[in-house]
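Can anyone check this?
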Amino acid sequence: MKLRDLAFSDLYISVDCEAFLRGVPGELGIVAPPEMVAPDLIGLHAVLSVSARERSEFSVRYDGVVYRVSNISSQQGRWWVCRRGMTRVPNVTELGVAPNLTDLMISLAQDRGLFLICGPSGQGKSTTAAAMMASWLTTFGDVGVAIENPPEAPLEGPHGDAGWCFQIDAEDNRISEAVAQSRRWRPKFMYLGEITTAEIAVQAARCASSQMAVVTTLYASTLRDGMEAFLRMVEEKEGEAGRQLVSECLTMCIYQHITGDPRRLGMEVLLPTKKPDDLIRAMIRSGDFSDIADYVRTTGQKKAG
């Protein structure tokens, strides 16, 4: 058995190669890895030691699996938390989303614009965003760019018969520079990692208002919180003009959450139209989201993949 064959969400490993697993199906808390994967732990440890440098977060690929890595500096020394990434990017149709929403998540990319996926941590937002990106490239072809810190999904390379994705690993303070550079490549699609700063939010909105379909994620406890937070960040840089920018570029906002046992995926969707008098776009321009619940569509609870 290899490390890649084990089911877990996180691997904690110290500089002394002490290790435990978290998120093992059927197990509570942490568990020790089986002895037979010890050679893989040594190999991964060597890769981490070389890749870490002074970065607090980074990603590594080991034995075909991408791990998103964060540093822990505790009283007992340094540990690395290795969150297991996807070995493959699913198609949107594999997510367990209602079919009519699946069609919109793909087809509306032809209209370009911003696809904002918000929700709490650990709800599969990045998986959904990556699936949308891969589905766009497979369905429509052309060139896509994925800019993340660090990359989580294996998007680099060909998709379908006529699509290609370039995947860029950029630290937060270099994301804006990476976006500016990538625009010169004239991509049709962009996957921009989690929105964490006002500068990244503005970059996402500007790209979406040009000739790109942009999918990105944002931490939020509700759909309303997500829209308010995104608008607030854009306004921080653009002032009142930020409201107009967001109202023009938004194509779809999804609030995603997983509940129940077995795990089920639920989505709440804000879907403005292209009409000049669209009430959702008017609400964004006003900055008043008190009536947003009147415009939110709720999908059925589908079993999560």
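Reply from J.R.: I decoded it. The CA atoms of residues 227 and 253 lie 8 Å apart.
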